[in-house]
Design goal:
Layout: E1 20-21, E2 25-33, E3 38-44, E4 50-55, H1 67-78, E5 87-93, H2 97-102, E6 112-118, E7 122-123, H3 124-128, H4 137-156, E8 159-160, E9 169-171, E10 177-179, E11 186-187, H5 208-211, H6 220-235, H7 245-256, H8 273-276, H9 286-289, H10 295-304, H11 315-319, H12 344-372, H13 394-397
Parallel strand pairs: 1-5
Antiparallel strand pairs: 2-3, 3-4, 4-6, 5-6, 7-9, 8-11, 9-10
Helix pairs in contact: 4-6, 6-10
This protein binds adenosine-5'-triphosphate.
Residues 31-32, 34-37, 39, 52, 54, 85, 117-120, 123, 167-168, 170, 180-181, 183, 343-345, 407, 409 line the site of adenosine-5'-triphosphate.
Length: 513
């Protein structure tokens, strides 16, 4: 692969791409399963290097190679930055149907096209789901800073990610965080019509302008998602877990206040405003809900979760926030503890296994009860614990079955139920007063307000998932975003003067030593 200086665009074409076979790799285990295809951990046979292979799903493609994959490859080829996942090469496999059958569970790959990525030990959702794991404040600052630095680089280079969420933030055991899954990303440099799809970004992380039907938008959409991730890291669980689009908007308005011409000039011009405007004014409650957060954290959160996309902080503004320049400073990524690998796919699988075990134990107990109810009680003394009652038994570990949060794709249907038990340890305000149990109707919408499914513009009131661009590429329009491209994203990440605590904001956001 041609080398470029990190932080610069890679404009060279790599001629060898696609010329190698996937047979150069040995499949180790599956680490991801997405809308897009499966992801495997694999070893390159010759060098022994561990990589991640993402199989490009072709089964639904009548029209050849999927446009989303072409976009992802094109965008990733041009981005070169330490906080963006590195696409190393593309490999192919021409296995026939018989081979595919035979290799289904073996260590060979089936036919198709694979993207070869550098391997990352965790994704943020998988890592945060580890029982007993507690992120420290310097650690949260460290991850947030890397997320913002990577995103700033994307935006400077006129790329919108459009699917920022925990499972797309990969972390290695050196503490490096990298943005991944550019399947919904798009370059907005040569578009001049502003007709982009609004059916992007996983529901819980989707900004109000998209939910209100905007098709002219810019980097601010990613910044809303960053706000949701930040809130989640501090609060310990997703802060806006809507079940469907109307409920999502309602949750946003309950937390951020209802939009009006004062706090969001021109909101009434968004395509679906009249369908979804709240029936009563609602107060902005971020500072009240999260009142126990550190004031700098609260200030950053407040600026990220700003309703008006034009007033929402950019990645550069966020990197300049006092939060990152006051004690405790972000830690050096290398100083972070090393954890056993954890990907959302695996933690979910483990949980599923645990739930199955619990079910089995329940059924066995019930059977046992049924068998013995008519017998005199027996005293069990000195008996070894059964395989279901040992110290590692799930019942003894008392872990509630948890939903992994929304990581299913984009089109309005988050993975997992809406009420998600706390998956983070307390690191901010645990008694912050944010009531996730408030129902969709609590916020002033009348249920009848939504057009019936299939009628009218936006969403059916039923909360049914809406087909999205991966399934229907027609959703992608061409045209520029309507946000101003003036200097905001024009330069390198500069700071705003010396860090009072010794760091220098002009030094590319260097780490605390
Ligand atoms: N380079 C990598 N190293 C390690 N794990 C990875 C890598 N790339 C992806 N994964 C794992 O695979 C999962 C799915 O990958 P990715 O998001 O790229 O696929 P997708 O099909 O677009 O999934 P989704 O539909 O959830 O967005 C990630 O959440 C992550 O856990």
């Amino acid at each position: 692969m041609a080398l470029t200086v990190p932080g610069q665009l890679n404009t060279e074409v790599i001629p060898s791409w696609g010329s190698r076979s996937v047979d150069c790799f040995e499949k180790l285990e599956q680490i991801g399963e997405g809308t897009y295809g499966q992801v495997f951990m694999a070893r390159e046979t010759k060098s022994g290097e561990i990589v991640a292979l993402k199989k490009i799903r072709m089964d639904n493609e009548k029209e050849g190679f999927p446009i989303t994959a072409i976009r992802e490859i094109k965008i990733l080829k041009k981005l070169e930055h330490e906080n963006i996942i590195k696409l190393k090469e593309i490999v192919t496999c021409t296995g026939d149907a018989k081979d595919e059958q035979r290799n289904q569970d073996g260590n060979k790959f089936m036919g198709g096209v694979y993207m070869v990525f550098e391997y990352m030990d965790h994704d943020l959702t998988g890592l945060a789901d580890r029982p007993g794991l507690r992120f420290t404040v310097p650690q949260i600052k460290c991850y947030m800073k890397q997320l913002l630095t990577g995103l700033h680089y994307c935006h400077v280079n006129q790329v919108l990610h459009r699917d920022i969420k925990g499972s797309n933030l990969l972390i290695d055991n050196e503490g490096q965080l990298k943005l991944a899954d550019f399947g919904l990303a798009r370059s907005f440099s040569n578009d001049h019509g502003g007709n982009l799809t609004n059916r992007v970004i996983t529901l819980w992380y989707r900004p109000p302008e998209l939910l209100l039907g905007a098709t002219r938008y810019g980097p601010a959409v990613d910044m809303w998602s960053v706000g949701c991730i930040f809130g989640e890291l501090l609060y310990g669980k997703p802060i806006l877990p809507g079940k469907n689009e109307p409920e999502q908007l309602n949750k946003i308005f309950e937390l951020c206040g209802s939009p009006d011409e004062n706090n969001w000039p021109d909101v009434s011009k968004t395509p679906w405003y009249n369908n979804f405007k709240p029936t009563r004014p609602m107060k902005r409650r971020i500072r009240e809900m999260f009142r126990n957060f550190d004031r700098h954290a609260l200030d950053l959160l407040d600026h990220l979760l700003t309703l008006d996309p034009n007033q929402r902080w950019t990645a550069k503004q966020a990197l300049d926030a006092d939060y990152f320049w006051n004690d405790p400073l972000p830690c050096d990524p290398k100083s972070l503890p090393k954890y056993e690998s954890s990907h959302e796919f695996q933690t979910k699988k483990k949980r599923q296994q645990q739930r199955q075990n619990e079910e089995l134990v329940k059924r066995q107990k019930l059977q046992h009860l049924q068998q013995h109810t008519r017998l005199p009680p027996i005293q069990h003394t000195g008996q070894a614990p059964s395989q279901w009652q040992g110290p590692n038994h799930p019942l003894n570990n008392a872990q509630p079955p948890v939903s992994a949060g929304p990581s299913h794709h984009h089109y309005g249907k988050p993975r997992g139920p809406p009420v998600v038990p706390n998956r983070y340890p307390p690191s901010g305000n645990q008694s912050g007063g944010y009531n996730t149990n408030r129902g969709a109707q609590a916020g002033g919408y009348s249920g009848s307000q939504y057009p019936a499914q299939g009628r009218g513009p936006p969403y059916g009131g039923s909360g049914m998932p809406v087909p999205g661009p991966r399934g229907a590429p027609t959703g992608y329009g061409v045209g520029p975003p309507n946000y101003s491209q003036s200097n905001q994203y024009g330069g390198s990440v500069g700071g705003r003067g010396p860090n009072p605590l010794g760091g220098n904001r002009n030094q590319q956001y260097g780490w605390q030593q």
